[in-house]
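Team,

Forwarding the record for the chain on the shared tracking sheet. I've put the sequence and predicted structure together so nobody has to dig through attachments.
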Amino acid sequence: MKHRNVSLFVPHEGCPHACSFCNQKVISGQSRPLTVNDIRTACETALQSGGYCTEESEIAFFGGSFTAIETEKQILYLQTANEYIGEGKFGSIRISTRPDCINEEILVVLKQYNVRNVELGAQSMSDEVLLANRRGHTAKDTENAVRLLRENGFGVGLQMMTGLYGSTEETDFFTAREFVRLQPDTVRIYPTAVLEHTFLAQLYKNGQYCPQTQEQAVAACSKMLRLFYEHNIRVIRVGLHAGGDVQGNLLAGVFHPAFGELCEGEIYYSEMCNALHNAPEGRYTVYVTPRAFSQAVGQKKNNIIRLAQKGYTCRVAADVNIPKYRVRIVCERTDETEENECI
């Protein structure tokens, strides 16, 4: 059953820092402050648009740092959204904020207005990387915020970025492993995009910052996706969403409207290569879970093309018994059938 969500953006509102990479107005496509009327209009539109509202349906405040907004305005936003929580409407409210803007007093307020899930923009678990990118908080702040949220019964989401200024592939994987240790309910992974009117744009133009290529980001993020999956942590977003004016202000770095699918495609390509290791050239059928058919084929059939270049003519078929990120390979021969299980 499909459930409806409402996403509301509060660009830069409440945020006490200008991080190296941040241009929320470009990312969200919204430059003016959020109003009570905006909240009501968005909720009413969603309720009238069809579909179903379930306990999983959320009104979500993204962008900015929600719990750093002045208290009166914060409560006004929550009160307005809370009017739409209840039977036949939405199940709860989700907010996004900074790790250093969580404390016991704030959580008391959030509980009063049916906030169930809190996402923290951790971005990195390296203090050196956080400092270089002007984040204004530490890795310890993230740990403390996660602990407080857990102790008070909130769902926890963590957001990370790859390829930040001063970061390396090793540093990025350190962040991913630290996330696993903290055991959030959800994770979002954002490869760094260099947007106009940011400190990172200055560093890039001065030759002080070399961003990840798309190929590098796909390789790294696909491994992180697999890591989180193996530890039962749900990844709910990979790559910036395609709204706003990201493409119009993108100087360098990584942005692709289907970046998550590219990463999942890379996981399946790696699985297929492992399963076919030392297998003779020929024709094969690759069985995957039905939901992963397009990822296994790859964007523009890229996985099929790359396998063909290795001497393997493959077709993809569905098998409901195969788990996510696993494949079963069957050799298509007239005289015999060989099966190569990917464990």
